[in-house]
Amino acid sequence: MARKYTLQQRAKHQEETRQRIIEAAVCLHQTVGGAKASISVIAELAGVERLTIYRHFPDERSLAMACTSHYQALNPPPDPGPWQSIQDDEQRLRRGLSEIYAFHRRTEQMSRHALHDMEEKPILREVLAPYFAYWEQVRDLLASAWEPKNAPCSARIRAAIGHAISFQTWRSLVREQGLEDTEAIELMARMLRCL
After folding, report:
1. What is the pLDDT of residues 83-126, one digit of tens each?
2. CA distance 15 to 37
3. What pLDDT does residue 33 have?
4. In whole angstroms, how far apart are CA 3 and each of 6, 11, 14?
């Protein structure tokens, strides 16, 4: 009985250590970026040795996958399912952009660093592939409300909606140009109307 208890305690301790490593890595990726979040810095913040990190995460990809999963569980992107019931193209777009821009605002620090870090750490593009696939699905769902009426313009509509939902577009309009989210949404809706 004592051995079983000891194994359970050890497993619990290992899971707690693993979680501390993930949380330390996420914190650093969000505040200084993944490029500056070396294993040594992560280990120091998590209160473990470098070797302990390698025991839990044998390579950079496994650590990045764990961090991404943890962060996305805490910060899920908007659920586009309910938008499908909105038949009006512009209302669907406005509802989607409202939720998307709120998401971009909430996750701004991490998104900014992640986009920058992908240039220095190509492994991140692979790790974030499901995230990019999600945004393609969102683009297609929003575009589907416009396309039946505008079949000749569908490529431009998809491109314009892809641009409208992009984190970089939100950041440019809101942070660099000083618009409020509602003003940025209105601008994007007008852009789509022009097509």
Report:
1. 999 999 999 999 999 999 999 999 999 999 988 888 888 888 88
2. 21
3. 87
4. 5, 12, 16
Residue 47 exposed, middle or buried by CB count within 10 Å (0-12, 13-18, 19+): exposed
* Token pair of 144 as six digits: 């589907």
Report the chain's terminal Cα–Cα distance, integer Å.
72
Number of CB atoms found within 10 A of residue 35's CB: 15
- Bigger pLDDT: 24 vs 195: 24
Residue 123's CB is within 10 A of a number of other CB atoms, namely: 16
* pTM, to two decimals: 0.88
Is there a contact between 143 and 84 (Cβ–Cβ < 8 Å)? Answer: no
